User: Fold these one by one.
Assistant:
Number 1:
Amino acid sequence: MVAPLLAEQEVEPWMERHRFIIRDSAPSSPLTKQLHTAKNDRVLVMELDFSSEGFVQGLLDTVSNKGAAPDARMDAFFQLAAVDFAFKRYPQALEKYGACFNYFDQKGNKPMQALCLSGAGDTQLRSGKPVEALKFYQQSLALGVEEKNLPVIQVSTFGAGNACLELARHEEAEGYFKHADDASAKMHNPFAKCDAMEKRGLAAWQQGKVEQAIDIWTKGKELAKQFSYSTRAISILGGLIELSRKAGPSRRLVELEAEKAALEKSEGASPVPGGQRA
């Protein structure tokens, strides 16, 4: 199958415009060995490591390479901060985000400054420090508003809303999630909008605004289903079911439970108990 694509002989002019990319994933890599032996100058063989370990090592190599461009080294350092965060190495992540912020501050790169602040906010929030997290999110939001940067505004307001939920400042949380909702809509990002709508509904519910929570969640659930965002639709349905149960047995409760069960079955998803929202 591959041999005719290797063009070992002269080819027609129209063929010169064509490129074929083939991944040899077999453990013994028979194609790669043959291509090395053939020494076909029309073929480029690249040895790529797609493993997580290889990715992290590539970042470390870039950071330690003094001959690389400073911006490239700092971009790699920023990604290493995210790796630390993912592996719950929160002090190391916070230190890296701080170093990146100082660098981008000197460069006058406000969008990257804002992302560093949001990353620090995520780190503090996950570390159980919502007060400190909120401060970072607010600083990031200030830069986002100054630059009229919608992605930064969306990320920072969503994070600030989560911090306010942790602090039981539900009215503030609702306001932040409303801004995150609006920013997501302006970016035409229905997935981020559904996430924000779920949290908006939760903040409203915590304030006793039950009808408002039901309205927000119902619209969010329908939007999630429209864009096949089943995980979020199922999660929102869990909240609606929990609210309905508090009101007592009803036809509406039966309908919601049936809708949730059907979604879980169609997606092969694990059941999400009512109220367990991401």
Number 2:
Amino acid sequence: MGLADFSKEAQAALERYHTCLVEATMELDDHVSDAQTIAKAVINECYDLELAFIDARAGTHATDLEKAVLRKTVKDRLDNGVVNVILKVRHEYAKPLPQTR
């Protein structure tokens, strides 16, 4: 399922969530810690927007059980993808590492 298959609301929520991930990574990444450690902080920083996307993705017609299953499935997939976002941001906006002697 691609982005075009999402409702406009879900697309907008996903864009807000992705923007948060990028901005939080740029703010929180110390370029010393491993990406998995930074991911934990980034996930916490963007948690509300992640849930907003998941709820928008579920739609208004989903039952509570369907929403719960989707929340678990999508949240796991999103959280696993955060490390990739961090690595891409590190590559794209790489700061020179401090010189050590």
Number 3:
Amino acid sequence: MAKKMLYTITADELGINDDNDLKLYCTPGSIAPYWASQPNFSNDVCVATVQDFLSDAGFDSIEGFEGDFTFDMQIELPEPL
């Protein structure tokens, strides 16, 4: 069974990730996802995008959010290989 974790990010951080076209990746078996424009390793998996966080919260755009407003989302971590 895949592990899930609650990932919390502020609107400011999410906006920066959106501006830089970053996605949330995770190495299979790891519990530490990371934001990047591409995976660090060929087997790393994209577990969420900025749009995923917005959609999960019921929004279409990051515009209008700022500061300490937070987005929380359950993400599924990839199984070890």
